[in-house]
Design goal:
Blueprint (H helix, E strand, L loop, with lengths): L14 E4 H20 L9 E4 L5 E4 L2 H7 L5 H16 L4 H20 L4 H22 L1 E2 L5 H12 L8 H15 L10 E7 L7 E3 L2 E3 L11 E10 L19 H25 L3 E4 L5 H9 L3 E3 L4 H11 L3 E2 L11 E11 L2 E7 L7 E7 L2 H24 L1 E4 L3 H15 L5 H12 L1 H9 L4 H13 L5 E4 L4 E4 H4 L2 E3 H19 L3 E4 L23
Parallel strand pairs: 5-14, 8-9, 8-11, 9-10
Antiparallel strand pairs: 1-19, 2-3, 4-15, 6-14, 7-13, 8-12, 12-13, 15-18, 16-17
Length: 540
C-alpha cells in the first residue's frame, strides 16, 4: 500500500497558527498592550520610564508616546498601537482610553468564544453595539461653543490633570484656551497655527502665550539692534547672496584688474539688493535662505534686524501673525509686502538666543512657550499642553461635550444593557459583553486611585439610577460626585472616536483564524514568538 507524500505549500521555516490558537494568541497580545498602559489612566495614573538603545530617557503617562517608544513586533499588538495613533491624529487625547477599551472588548470576546459563540456572531453584536453607542453618546452630550470659555478651560484642565504639568494646569489651561480663540477664523481652527516652543529654564509656571512667533534663531550680525519697536517685517524666501552658476563653469582671468572688476560687481549686486530692502522701509528681515556677510554688514549699518535659514513652516506662521507677504523677487519688493509687529527682539532663553516676533495685532498664528526646570519636565509639559489644545479644538469643532470621571461610561453601559435586552439570540451576549467592556474605564480609574472598584461602581450605578446624570469618581476624595459640577469635562469626540476605532480593531482581530508568518524579510511578517510580543520585557 503506497504512503501519501506530505505536500508543503509554505516556504521552509514558516510558522502557522490555526483556529482557536490563532484567536487566543492574538487576543493575548492585544490584552498585554492594554495592560501595559492601563496603570497610566486617570489623575492618579502612574508614569512609565522608557530607555532607548542610546540611553535616552522618556518619562510619560501619555498612551501613544509609550506605545510608540516600545518596539512591538507582534502583528495583532501592532493593530492595537494603530488605535492609539488614530486617536492621537483625530483628537490628540484619549489614547489610553481607546487602547484599554479595545483590550477589554477582546477579553470579553474570549469568554464568549470559550462558550462556543461563533466569532461572526460576536463581531456582528459588537458592530451593532458600536453604532448604538454613537447614538447614545450624541444624546448624552451637551452643546458647547467657542464663547463658553469657562467650559473650555475646564476641558483643558481635565486633559492636564494627572500629567507632569498638573501643578500649573490653571495657567496652562488658560493659555491653551486663549491660543485657540485667538487663531479661530470664520469658525475654522487649524492646530498648526499654534506653535508650541519648549525651552528648559525657569518653571512650568513661567510658560507664556506670545501674540506672534518665537524663532529658534539669533540675529545674523552683532552690529544689528537687539530690539526693534513698531517693526516693519520683510519675509524673504530668496537668498541675499550671489547665486552660483547651475552648471560647472570655468572663468579664465588673464588680468588682475578683471578679478577686481568681478569682486566689485558682486559687491554692487549685493548693495543693490540691500538698498532695495532699505528703501522699502523694512526694519526686520526674516530670510528663509542664506544672507551674505556683506549683505549682513549693509543691513546692520542701516539698523535692520535680520535672521536667516528660517523654516518654511515658520515663514507660513509669520505671514498669518504679521500680515506680511513672502517675497521671492527683491526687484519687485514694495511697501505693501511688509508686515507689522509691536516688537521684534532677541532674548536669551536658557543658553540659547531666540528671536521673539511679538505684539502682533490680530495675530492668527501664535506661540505657546512651554518652560520647565529639566528637559524631561518640559517634554511632559509639552505633551500635556498638546492634549489640552487638541481637546479644546475637538470640543469646539464637534460642538458637544460630556462629563468625565467615568460618568459617561456608566451612563453608556446602562443604556447598552437596555438595548441588549431588546435583542434576542446569541448576539445579545455580545452586546452585553460590549456594555461590560465600556465599564473598564471607571473601573480602572478606581483601581489606579487605590479605591475599591466594586463599591465605587455600585455607588455610581445607584446614583445614575437616582437621576444624577454625571455621577463620576472623584479620585482625590474617593467619593462619587457630579463630574459636571466638579469641572471634569471632556470633548464628545474622545469617546466617539475611542468606541469607533476600538470596536473596529476588535472585530478585525476576532475574524482572524489563521496566522501565517513567513521566515525572511521578503514581504512577510516578522516570525512570532509562540505566546507573546517581542520588544516588551517580561511579556512572552
Amino acid at each position: 500500500m503506497s504512503q501519501t507524500q506530505p505536500i508543503f505549500i509554505l516556504p521552509e521555516g514558516s510558522t502557522r497558527i490555526l483556529g482557536r490558537d490563532a484567536q487566543r494568541n492574538n487576543i493575548m497580545a492585544a490584552k498585554l498592550v492594554a495592560e501595559t498602559v492601563r496603570t497610566t489612566l486617570g489623575p492618579k495614573g502612574m508614569d512609565k520610564m522608557m530607555v532607548d538603545s542610546l540611553g535616552d530617557v522618556t518619562v510619560t503617562n501619555d498612551g501613544v508616546t509609550i506605545l510608540e517608544d516600545i518596539q512591538i513586533e507582534h502583528p495583532a499588538a501592532k493593530m492595537i498601537v494603530e488605535i492609539a495613533k488614530t486617536q492621537e491624529d483625530q483628537v490628540g487625547d484619549g489614547t489610553t482610553t481607546a487602547v484599554i477599551f479595545a483590550g477589554e472588548l477582546l477579553k470579553n470576546a474570549e469568554r464568549l468564544l470559550e462558550q462556543d459563540v461563533h466569532p461572526t456572531v460576536i463581531t456582528k453584536g459588537y458592530r451593532r453595539s458600536a453604532e448604538k453607542a454613537q447614538e447614545i453618546l450624541n444624546n448624552l452630550a451637551k452643546p458647547v461653543t467657542i464663547k463658553d470659555t469657562d467650559i473650555l478651560k475646564k476641558i483643558a484642565m481635565t486633559a492636564m490633570t494627572g500629567k507632569g504639568a498638573e501643578a500649573a494646569k490653571e495657567l496652562l489651561a488658560d493659555i491653551a484656551v486663549k491660543a485657540v480663540i485667538q487663531v479661530e477664523e470664520n469658525g475654522k481652527i487649524n492646530i498648526d497655527d499654534i506653535k508650541i516652543e519648549k525651552k528648559v529654564g525657569g518653571g512650568t509656571e513661567d510658560s507664556e502665550l506670545i501674540q506672534g512667533i518665537v524663532l529658534d534663531k539669533e540675529r545674523v550680525h552683532s552690529g544689528m539692534p537687539k530690539s526693534v519697536n513698531n517693526a516693519k517685517i520683510l519675509l524673504l524666501d530668496t537668498a541675499l547672496e550671489i547665486k552660483s552658476t547651475e552648471t560647472d563653469a570655468k572663468i579664465q582671468v588673464t588680468d588682475p584688474n578683471q578679478l577686481q572688476a568681478f569682486i566689485e560687481q558682486e559687491e554692487k549686486m549685493i548693495k543693490d539688493m540691500t538698498d532695495k530692502i532699505i528703501k522699502s522701509g523694512a526694519t526686520v528681515v526674516i530670510c528663509q535662505k542664506g544672507i551674505d556677510d556683506l549683505a549682513q554688514h549693509f543691513l546692520s549699518r542701516a539698523g535692520i534686524y535680520a535672521v536667516r535659514r528660517v523654516k518654511k513652516s515658520d515663514m507660513d506662521k509669520l505671514t498669518r501673525a504679521t500680515g506680511a507677504k513672502v517675497v521671492s523677487n527683491i526687484k519687485e519688493l514694495s511697501k505693501d509686502d511688509l508686515g507689522k509687529a509691536g516688537t521684534v527682539e532677541e532674548q536669551m532663553i536658557g543658553d540659547e538666543e531666540m528671536t521673539y516676533v511679538k505684539e502682533c495685532k490680530n495675530a492668527k498664528s501664535v506661540t505657546f512657550l512651554v518652560r520647565g526646570g529639566t528637559s524631561h519636565v518640559v517634554d511632559e509639559a509639552e505633551r500635556a499642553v498638546k492634549d489640552a489644545i487638541g481637546d479644546v479644538i475637538a470640543a469646539i469643532k464637534v460642538g458637544k461635550v460630556v462629563g468625565g470621571a467615568g460618568a459617561v461610561e456608566i451612563a453608556l453601559a446602562r443604556q447598552l444593557r437596555d438595548f441588549a435586552n431588546s435583542t434576542s439570540g446569541r448576539e445579545q451576549l455580545a452586546i452585553q459583553a460590549f456594555a461590560d467592556a465600556v465599564e473598564i474605564i471607571p473601573r480602572t480609574l478606581a483601581e489606579n486611585s487605590g479605591l475599591d472598584t466594586i463599591d465605587m461602581l455600585t455607588d455610581m450605578k445607584s446614583k445614575h439610577d437616582a437621576g444624577m446624570e454625571w455621577a463620576g469618581i472623584d479620585v482625590f476624595t474617593g467619593k462619587v460626585v457630579d463630574a459636571w459640577e466638579t469641572g471634569v469635562i471632556e470633548p464628545l469626540k474622545i469617546k466617539t472616536q475611542a468606541v469607533k476605532s476600538a470596536s473596529e480593531v476588535a472585530e478585525l482581530i476576532l475574524r482572524i483564524d489563521d496566522v501565517i508568518a513567513t521566515s525572511g524579510s521578503e514581504g512577510g511578517m516578522p516570525p512570532m514568538p509562540p505566546g507573546g510580543m517581542g520588544g516588551m520585557p517580561g511579556m512572552c
